[in-house]
């Protein structure tokens, strides 16, 4: 039987790629798209919760995601800042929606997308906005933590693709 | 018109959990002393559950009076890939009353943060052992059954719960 030895950095190339991209995002945040990094300051002891919503977590085991986030925060913001992070949540967009973190979904109305060419355009503008193609719907999943963020996206989409009717739908996930 | 009991509940938060643990521990002890063994175990189990939840919520940074939703609890101990339990390689809980899942999460979380490691290395092991003692003899489904617990079962649960209750600020 072969003996295979791995180390903590198992999955090295994937880990390094995610780490580098996350550090770059923390150092120079983009105005839209992924990853979405939400830093929530808690009321006790200056602690923080960090959510990183990112389709690139797909295929990365849950137990590796947290260490990538913590290492990226050390690199971008320093060790003291990282110590203030009590909780990390790393999720793809569909996982985050399933966990109830992104209850406000933005999508085109069904009647405005019967035409195949129109569907392609809707697909592309949603991707440009940071939507996830990992879900099961015909269109990428664009979802947000609060209604204000969703309405902002609707405004941008109405400019990018005014031929569609864009709307916000609140999704209630199963909790467990 | 006076409000009914559920209408007088305070918001569910760390402080309310801690006070509820005090109250249910006193209730359980009265039942145990009166020989109502199954009823006592039923309440001791909830005491342990609430103590573990309050301990983890404090570590996670929730203020004493911050409302805690069911979704927040699932986010910590659930089985979804986004849960804290899963981020430690733990299986997570199918049920929010899963005492062992809460204890595993608490011990793993402390072990992962140098500033939060228990001062004595045995503490986490004894904590886990005491939670296991209770979880083997308790389920929230007890209320549906007429069985009378043995004296030795009550002694085991009472002793384990007391260990956790006496150290509730150190968990």
Overview of this protein structure:
The complex is a heterodimer of chains A (176) and B (171). By secondary structure, chain A is α+β, with helices and mostly antiparallel strands. Chain A contains six helices and six strands. Chain A has helices spanning 12-27, 62-77, 79-83, 93-98, 116-128, 147-160; strands spanning 36-41, 48-53, 85-91, 104-108, 142-144, 166-170. Chain A has a three-stranded mixed sheet with strand order 1-2-3. Chain A has a three-stranded antiparallel sheet with strand order 5-4-6. Chain B is an all-alpha fold and 171 residues long. Chain B has a single domain (10-166), classed as Up-down Bundle (Four Helix Bundle (Hemerythrin (Met), subunit A)), CATH 1.20.120. Chain B is built from seven helices and no strands. Classes of the chains: A alpha+beta (176), B mainly alpha (171). Chain A binds chain B through residues 42-45, 47-49, 62-63, 65-66, 83, 86-91, 95-96, 98-101, 175-176, and chain B through 58-64, 66, 70-71, 74-76, 78-84, 86-89, 94, 115.
Percent in strands of chain B: under 5%
Poorly predicted runs of chain B: none
| CA radius of gyration of chain A | 18 Å
What is the SS-derived class of chain A?
alpha+beta
Instruction: State the order of secondary-structure elements of chain B, H for helix, E for strand.
Output: HHHHHHH
Task: Report the order of strands and helices of chain A.
Answer: HEEHHEHEHEHE
CATH architecture descriptor text of chain B: Up-down Bundle
Q: What's the helical proportion of residues of chain A? A: 25-40%
Radius of gyration of chain B: 16 Å
Helix content of chain B: 55-70%
Distance between the termini of chain A: 40 Å
Distance between the termini of chain B: 42 Å
Overall SS class of chain B: mainly alpha
Put simply, the count of helices of chain A is 6
- Show unreliable segments of chain A: none
Strand order of the largest sheet of chain A: 1-2-3
């Amino acid at each position: 039987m072969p003996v295979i030895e791995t180390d903590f950095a198992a999955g090295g190339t994937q880990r390094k790629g995610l780490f580098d991209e996350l550090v770059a995002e923390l150092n120079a945040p983009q105005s839209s798209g992924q990853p979405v990094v939400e830093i929530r300051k808690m009321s006790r002891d200056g602690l923080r919760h960090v959510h990183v919503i990112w389709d690139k977590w797909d295929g990365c085991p849950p137990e590796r995601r947290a260490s990538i986030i913590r290492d990226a925060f050390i690199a971008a913001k320093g060790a003291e800042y990282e110590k203030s992070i009590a909780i990390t949540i790393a999720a793809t967009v569909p996982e985050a929606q399933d966990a109830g973190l992104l209850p406000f979904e933005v999508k085109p109305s069904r009647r405005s997308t019967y035409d195949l060419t129109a569907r392609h355009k809707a697909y592309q503008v949603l991707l440009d906005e940071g939507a996830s193609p990992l879900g099961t719907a015909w269109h990428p999943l664009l979802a947000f933590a609060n209604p204000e963020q969703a309405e902002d996206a609707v405004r941008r989409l109405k400019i990018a693709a005014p031929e569609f009717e864009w709307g916000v739908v609140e999704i209630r996930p199963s909790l467990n | 018109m006076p409000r009914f009991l559920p209408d007088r509940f305070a918001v569910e938060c760390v402080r309310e959990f801690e006070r509820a643990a005090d109250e249910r521990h006193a209730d359980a002890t009265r039942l145990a002393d009166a020989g109502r063994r199954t009823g006592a175990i039923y309440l001791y189990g909830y005491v342990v559950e609430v103590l573990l939840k309050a301990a983890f919520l404090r570590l996670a940074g929730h203020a004493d009076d911050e409302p805690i939703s069911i979704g927040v609890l699932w986010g910590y101990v659930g089985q979804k890939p986004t849960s804290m339990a899963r981020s430690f390689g733990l299986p997570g809980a199918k049920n929010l009353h899963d005492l062992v899942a809460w204890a595993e999460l608490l011990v793993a979380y402390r072990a992962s943060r140098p500033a939060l490691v228990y001062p004595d290395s045995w503490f986490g092991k004894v904590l886990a052992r005491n939670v296991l003692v209770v979880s083997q003899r308790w389920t929230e489904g007890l209320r549906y059954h007429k069985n009378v617990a043995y004296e030795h079962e009550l002694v085991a649960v009472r002793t384990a719960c007391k260990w956790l209750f006496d150290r509730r600020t150190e968990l």
